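Table S2 (text version). Query chain:
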Amino acid sequence: MVDKVIKASKIIALLEGGCSQCFVAQRLNVSRSTVQRTWQRYQETGSVKRRPGSGRKTCTEPRDDRFLVSQALRNRKSSYVDLKNTLEEVRNVQISLWTVRRRLLAANIHSHSPARGPKLLRGHGVARLSFARNCVSWTHEDWDRVLFSDEARISLHGEDRRRRVLRRRGERFAEACFEEITPYGGGSVMFWAGINSMDRTELVFIENGTLTGHRYITEVLIPYAQPALTALGENSIFMDDNARAHRSGGVDAYMLEVGIRRLDWPAKSPDLNPIEHVWDVLERRVRSVQPAPQTIRELKNVITAEWEHIPQETIKDILISMPRRMLAVISARGGHTQY
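Corresponding structure-token output:
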């Protein structure tokens, strides 16, 4: 407001000094209409300040605005259309969607896609925090010894991620703004792979039923994981999550027998596994292929091709984040992180 008054005073000073309106507009970098309005106001009132109450009236009362905010915070998954309709039904006030958005922005409420992740119980948080504290001092060279692995699924038709939630700054992981996920919902093609900063394994499709402990040994560990670990050297470490097939008695016995050193991975921690971000890169590449695959066979061919075309530098850049992930878990006291 002070800046506007100062600029208006400069306009009047230049005009009274004999300058033309066009010259003043160019000199002060304002429109000519602004110069005209300022001069007219000065001629009528003798002041450069706007008359009290001369601005445009708002179309809502303060209590209407409070109602909108309370409705948005009560149901974080409300759309602007939902809030507009509710205000019209309850308070008989008709406004535009743009007005709804402005009122919420004034209350620091923004529309975002919900953060997503598994539900964390207290024990999960404790385990995650302990893991992060044990590994926070690891260097990039330490993480380079780890072969990160996991399974993933991609369906013929992508999951709908268009849902939105209304939240304020700092509420990304608030319970009302969070969306829990279940593993592998609605997938069509399941596959496994392992990554390291220097290389990656082939993509292994898991076909004909459920992945069991026996199949994990014969179809994944022996032909793909073990050779990759051998290439990393005698100090290599294998990372897999706590899926049932990975933690069967037979798998544990086999790893002990062949000397595979396993990272003690905390449950419910996909945000700590960098391969999850690589899966995201892969799926976006698959979804960008045109024409889109129409059959499972076509989908598998596209997935295989795109996996091979992901630059190794992209994978390396993702793996560099491991020290930051540990710090993020500690900062969140074992809770969800931005990863």
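Notes on Table S2: Residues 182-187 have pLDDT under 50 and may be disordered. The CA atoms of residues 13 and 19 lie 9 Å apart.
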